[in-house]
Amino acid sequence: MLRQHSYWQLFSAVCKKDLQLAFRQRAEIVNPILFFLIVITLFPLAIGPEPGLLSRMAPGIIWVAALLSTMLGLDKLFRDDYHDGSLEQLIASSYPLPLTVLGKVVAHWIITGLPLVLMTPLFALLLNLDNQALIATVLTLLLGTPLLSFIGAIGAGLTVGLQKGGILMSLLVLPLYIPVLIFATSAIDTSTMSLDYSGQLAILGAMLVIAIISAPIAISSALKVSVS
Amino acid sequence: MQLAGPNGAGKTSLLRIIAGFSTPDEGQVMWQGESIAKNYDEFARQLLFIGHKTGVNSQLSAIENLQFWLQIQGYNTDQDLYSLLAKIGLVGLEDVPVRTLSAGQQRRVALIRLWLNDAKLWVLDEPFTALDKAGIAFLQQRFLAHLEQGGSILLTTHQDLTTHFNELQTVTLEYRH
Amino acid sequence: MWKWLHPYAKADRAYQLCNTLLPYFAVITVVFMIIGWIWGLAYAPADYQQKDSYRIIFIHVPSAILSMGAYSSMAIAAVIALVWQLRNAELAVIAIAPVGACVTAIALITGAAWGKPMWGAWWVWDARLTSELILLFLYLGVLSLYHAFEDKKAAGRAASILAIVGVINLPIIHFSVEWWNTLHQGATITKFDTKAIDSSMFWPLMVNIVAFAGFVGMVTLMRLKNEILQREKHRPWVRQLLNRG
């Protein structure tokens, strides 16, 4: 019964379990993408299909839709683990909890964030974005969606023990998403004017680094409160 | 050690405080002369907790659940889980999602951890719930083996345990307004 | 270094401290508020451009400053609550939150009212107003999270965590909103240039800021006293206190 503490083993085990569960219930992966697609369809219907207008509004539309669709998966992030007692087992494991949490957040991003990044060309097509803007959109989503997962997981951790945590979580998390929204959309805007947008990307990258370091600590203390 | 008392007396709350999930209003929990809040990871290494919520994911199979648990506790995963599952009466059910099993069988999946750990302190909340007679007897054998190896067990139950365990201590909590 | 804090971990000591501090805050509030309002609203000269409508700054600016100040004090209390496990600090977080939210709402309403004569619209997406609005969302988040928990012990800790997360994000949000604002409406006049303000207006403004700070402190202390009493209502010292009074 030898114990061989390997952080990688823990990280991959946690990550693998969530991915396994998601792939078993494919709706979990497909639904946020469908939601994203439907939200994007609504905008041309609401504001009119004029191509110039659409491509001007596209960054905002894509990013607001991205914020909303990540919220969908967040509610489930810790809920099952909370209800079946796995969360207690994770806290009582001899590994540091922030590392466990990191694994879960990465899995969440692979399930909800990565598909959005991969589907961007399609969205760009629908919203009449040119190639320059497409590249910028992919880059901002690549840096920004993991940030959304990290920040959102704090809200999910705080509300997981509550009966109706879902709406409350969006209230807590959406204001914290504002900087991501501002810098990401501005990067895409700048790219459509053929200007350099590496500044905005650098800020997004810096925020991501800060989030990777500090969010797991906040998330695990939130989870401990929820379990207590 | 058995923790007894009527429903609502606070047995589960006390177990959760001892396991370190909740913090007490006053006082602290000591383990081997040290407060568990100070060095929780060290304490967690010697603790096995199985609560009302058993920590078994209902979408995964019994084998997947056990492997996940072994991994997060840092144990080797190349153990013969199939023969262990057979021993506890789950032959042929190793690979179906746990949610399709009966309540007693699900409880057994959770309790297999008792055969898979080297923790000194077991904290068990109502471990006998939903088990049949054979299951209870089998579990009590495992308890005896653990005690012989110098381990300690803290549990809540409404079962009478005195016939099998002569070193049993019972603490009874009473409801206070 | 932090030894002086320890006695106040006890609820009755913290309660006594509140009682000792309260009169000072009350006196500061009353004195400075009377001076500040009379000076600001009646004696300070009218602005040559905005006429008398500028006088709303004597309420708007102090409340805007205090809205940020209250949030930082809430976050400091939250850090103390989580790091040193002081339950009274958790109560302080909850005591400050609604006060801060109210001050933020005052800043927003007065800001909007000021915008009407200045821009001809009740709401303009000005950087400061937008930041204030987001700050209000953060306050309301802390409050609704606290009230969503049934177990008040967990509620206090959860609210503290959220307050800390908020205060880390606040500068980033502030910076991003400022930046967004310059990007989208480059040439709007910012409402108040601190350098341009004349000393005949500056001093009454300072007096009003002190008055507001005193007011926020006073209300917070009163709320904190209530929170302590409510949590400790079964303890002997509270019973004694109630019997005496």
UniProtKB/TrEMBL annotation, chain A:
Superkingdom as given in the UniProt entry: Bacteria
Stored InterPro entries: Cyt_c_biogenesis_CcmB, Cyt_c_CcmB_bac
Entry GO MF terms: heme transmembrane transporter activity
TM spans (from-to): 29-47, 106-127, 133-160, 167-188, 200-223
Lipoprotein is among the record's keywords: no
Membrane topology: Multi-pass membrane protein
Major place of residence: membrane
Keyword Transmembrane: yes
BP-aspect Gene Ontology terms: cytochrome c biosynthetic process; cytochrome complex assembly
Localization: Cell inner membrane
Keywords attached to this entry: Cell inner membrane, Cell membrane, Cytochrome c-type biogenesis, Membrane, Transmembrane, Transmembrane helix, Transport
GO CC entries: plasma membrane
Function summary: Required for the export of heme to the periplasm for the biogenesis of c-type cytochromes.
Membership in a protein family: Belongs to the CcmB/CycW/HelB family.
Protein name stated in the entry: Heme exporter protein B
